[in-house]
Amino acid sequence: MNEEMTFFYNRILDVTSFGSILTKPFCFYILVMKTPKYMRTVSYFIINELGWNFLGNLIYTLGHPIPMMPAACFRIDGLASNFLQTEFQRFLYFTALATTVLNCCLGFIPTFIYRYVTLAFLDAAARVHPFWGFLCCAVLQLITSFLVAILFFSVWLPTSEYRGELPQDTRNLFCYEEGPKLAIVMYFFYAAFGVFGLSVTVLGGLCVRELWVKKSAMSKTTLLLQKEIVKNLLIITGSALFFASLPFVVVVFFIYNSKLPFAWIIVSNALLFPLNFGTVYALLIFILFKSYRKTVVDIVRSVLQAFKRACAVCKTSQDTSSTVMPLYLVSRPHAFYTR
């Protein structure tokens, strides 16, 4: 691994983090404060997905875990490296990052479960308090986090016990045990990505089917609203599948097969897609949903009008200053002369 390439890659990650920090907090504000009533429950699921994505981006930005191929090790660069003094702390940091990745992917599934249940079993869903639905989602993601922690702990290996070739500089490193245990972790992530893709495909198809079957039982306004929500969720989830989940499959494969040619370059480039997906996700929310799009346009228009008023005030003050000075000099012409 070339240190110059690592430095350049770290700067790319800094640019990525700038886009994430710029868009996601604004998106959170729009979702929390400007969501219409008919989308209130759906917005909770979107906030959950965006929250996991933002947390993962933040952890990666602060830590910059760099794969040290061909060794099955990672180096923590960035600000977090100043605080993570032991290998176990660095291992926990990376485990937290992997947890956010998996929860971000699986977070799309409850969204479609809720959408399908409310379309297919509206009367039964109305009798269940939303709290129980949110509790089930929280329990699912806690179980996922627990499984990730157990699997990663089973393959964590102190650097002193690593038998492969290590780089000369072993600062800020932590390693994993190569072999069958690491293969289990790889297949676990493959299974999670597969469940994500299969679930959203099946549930999305079922939602479309329910809209088709029950279109005569809905009012025109309700049908249009439901179609808009389902269509937009399918577009957003499809983009997550192709621009975040599939690149992660490539990353996991080459991390496991770290001795393959160009493995480091492939992993580094593939990671840029999911790292930038959160920004794309926020932009898709603004563009696709009419209510959010209108709110963003109104905010931008208000900011531009405020900027124009500020410019007009500055210009007026400058014109006033240039007008007052000649009058002053006319009334006191001797001010220009000195003895």
From TrEMBL:
Domain of life: Eukaryota
Keyword Protein biosynthesis included in the entry's annotation: no
Keyword annotations: Membrane, Transmembrane, Transmembrane helix
A Pfam family of this chain: 7TM_GPCR_Srh
Residues that span the membrane, as ranges: 12-32, 44-62, 91-117, 129-157, 187-212, 233-256, 262-289
PANTHER family xrefs: SERPENTINE RECEPTOR, SERPENTINE RECEPTOR, CLASS H
Name of the protein in question: G_PROTEIN_RECEP_F1_2 domain-containing protein
Organism, as annotated: Steinernema glaseri
Lineage: Eukaryota, Metazoa, Ecdysozoa, Nematoda, Chromadorea
